[in-house]
Amino acid sequence: MRQLTGAGRTVVAGQARRRCSVVLAVVVVLGAVPVLLAHRPVPATGITPAALRDRIAASAGQVHQGYAQSAGALGLPALPNLEQVTALVSGTTEMRVWRGARDRWRVDVLGPGTEQGLYQLPGEQYLWDYGESRLTRIVGEQPLRLPRAADLTPPELVRRLLSLAAGDRVEPLPGKRVAGVVAAGLRVVPVAPGTTVAHIDVWADPDSGLPLQAEITARGARRPVFVTRFLEVSLTAPAAAVLDPPVPGPGIGAATTSAADVLAALDRWDSLTPPDSLAGYPRQDSVDGVPVVGVYGTGLARFVALGLPGRLGDDVFGNAARWGRRLTVSGGEAVLITAGLLNVLAVRAERTYLVTGFVDAPLLERVAADLAGGTA
């Protein structure tokens, strides 16, 4: 039986169109909810930049869990044995974060079809590769290591940067919502000459001081070149079981290494100790028992010089030479790779050195002259 409501139109068809219209309206409304929430007025937090900075510095014990993302646009080339480090600052890193205490936390790095977990326990760490089913235990403190994804979570990165910028000026920023939290903001403006950093913008929970988002802008840049932020966050303690690493067993490869073994290996490179001063800055005692590393400069204009042995030094310098700009120095060779924020210098003379930091090209050119033995 046909049910006509007009020429060629049925009641059923009209009802279907109305249902479609209702569904479409619901979809539009639901899709607009996140946008509307994000643009709600942000109430004033009533905290000064100095007070917020102090709370951030004291927030290392704040429990939390969430999903974070860092994104860098530095464009550094992949140097030998440093590919993972350059990828961290030149791409996007997705991280799951759980923190129960200063010495009890976990950070998982998520990638296409891969996942790697870092578990911190008192006095030891565990690296868990889900794809390879491989568990590595690291015993002891690690005074020297390469940067890793866990260093780029908003809390870790912000606290490290603020400790470097202890004497720099702080200014207020308007509050904003980050992962649903009404966050207070501050801007750090470096005072030390020679740094590539124009300013660092930070937003943190005003009550606990937990950093939620950071943006680093290089001198001359119109937008941040590195951003880390929480997309989801809860200021609650994770379940204890989440912080326990996998138990070695059938099908799981297991190994143990000691931080002391790494330091002993580096100690054999003591002939590669960087000079007592570079570009007019004295070498600072950075890592006890690691003579191949020298730290120079002040504030955010600090830079690190690392002595590289034999073949490793040749490989690093050769790769840098393919990407960087050659400098004119006497007594050796030097190559400078500029990436806007984090610049890299490789020098090969009697010894080979790799130098990097948030420092500008003129300063690194003076460093190259010192390491190579003087300008031509």
Annotation keywords:
376 residues, alpha+beta, outer membrane lipoprotein receptor (LolB), chain A, Protein Transport Mog1p, Chain A, 6-stranded antiparallel sheet, 7 helices, 22 strands, 24% helix, 36% strand, transmembrane helix, transmembrane
- Terminus-to-terminus distance: 99 Å
Low-confidence stretches: 1-9, 16-39
Largest sheet: 12 strands, mixed
CATH homology group of the largest domain: Lipoprotein localisation LolA/LolB/LppX
Strand content: 35-45%
The helicity comes to 10-25%
CATH third-tier fold name of the largest domain: outer membrane lipoprotein receptor (LolB), chain A
Give the SSE order as H and E letters. EEHHEHEEEEEHEEEEEEHEEEEHEEEEH
Radius of gyration, in Å, reads 26 Å
Q: Structural class, judged by helices and strands?
A: alpha+beta
**Number of helical elements:** 7
Q: What is the count of distinct domains?
A: 2
Mean pLDDT: 85
Supply the CATH class of the largest domain: Mainly Beta
Neighbour order of strands in the largest sheet: 9-10-11-12-13-3-4-5-6-7-8-14
Number of strands: 22
Shape: globular
Protein name: MucB/RseB-like sigma(E) regulatory protein
Keywords: Membrane, Transmembrane, Transmembrane helix
